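ok so I'm stuck.
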Amino acid sequence: MIAKAEGKFLRISPSKVSQVMNLIRGKSAKEAVSILFHLNKRPKEYLIKILKSAIANAKVKGFNIEQLYISKIVCNPGPSWKRFKAAAFGRAQPILKRTSHIKIELDLKK
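replied:
not stuck anymore, here's the structure
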């Protein structure tokens, strides 16, 4: 692990994030940014922000961006927001608004 970055308590479902994460897992950092930039899914905003942060962390440490690749990318579920929706006959139905913790680690190509 050369550099890492993580986003916590992001207001998006982990299952939706994992679909987009599978597209960039194992790719080079520059290639991953370009893939995400041309994608039309909501998790791309969070992933681009976290990936750019990890790249900036690697730059500060003095590494070349061309040699970096995504060695580990994980999305874990965060706490869910509990809400209720009105239902028939005066009842209420629960709604879970899910959150995510996304972690990206970059490493050097060998």
